[in-house]
Design a protein that fits this description.
Low-confidence stretches: none
Number of helices: 5
Number of strands: 7
Structural class: alpha+beta
Strand content: 25-35%
Oligomer: single chain
Order of helices and strands: HEEEEEEHHEHH
């Protein structure tokens, strides 16, 4: 990923925070024919007992992407954070042009198929628990265990141990303080979903500490 120096994000906690909050990501692998293949999946982002970062997910058995995993090539997982259009009319200084602010993380590593039935069930259970957490009456896998057991043969679970992370947080760092604050204010007033989250991310970078 092309990352100009002033947009590079190396803070591990900021990168993990974005990955966890925006965990519906894109898994990209290269096929034997040299063509890229992508699948959109919800990931679990966690550390193992030794502290190593790993990504866990599952896909449908008919999806051919998992068949490329044994080739032991690096895969890419793209986590897209908040993003928004930035109008040149928002700046306090003149001679500006439109742009797009955004935050994204690229994670690299080699995916490995998980064979353990208990571990597959754990991934399914934890994934559901995360997204059910906001419900008044959360669904649990045990409520449909028999049905889940019948479906297990139709999925492939896998892990990707992260060997490299790249973070690009393009948040108007190349602009002056007055222009950055003007962009934040405009985004906070925006009716578009996600603009407020981007504004909050930008504001967090402006505040000391």
């Amino acid at each position: 990923m092309y990352i100009p120096r002033h947009f590079e994000e190396r803070d591990a906690e900021r990168l993990l925070s974005l990955m966890t909050r925006h965990a519906f990501a894109v898994l990209v692998t290269m096929g034997e024919d040299g063509a890229p293949f992508a699948t959109h999946l919800p990931f679990l982002v966690e550390r193992d007992a030794a502290g190593a970062l790993r990504l866990l997910a599952h896909m449908a058995l008919p999806n051919p992407q998992w068949r490329a995993f044994p080739a032991e090539r690096d895969a890419l997982v793209i986590f897209q954070g908040p993003h928004a259009y930035v109008s040149p009319t928002w700046y306090t200084t003149g001679s500006q042009v439109p742009t797009w602010n955004y935050a994204t993380v690229h994670a690299y590593g080699r995916p490995r198929i998980i064979e353990s039935r208990d571990e597959v069930l754990r991934i399914l259970r934890d994934t559901a628990a995360r997204y059910e957490a906001g419900n008044a009456r959360p669904w649990t896998m045990e409520q449909s265990q028999e049905y889940v057991n019948r479906l297990l043969g139709g999925i492939v679970a896998f892990e990707l141990r992260v060997t490299r992370l790249e973070g690009k947080f393009k948040l108007s760092q190349n602009k002056g303080e007055a222009d950055r604050k003007a962009v934040i204010s405009a985004l906070e007033r925006s009716p578009f979903p996600g603009d407020g989250e981007l504004a909050a991310l930008m504001r967090s970078r402006e505040e000391p500490g």
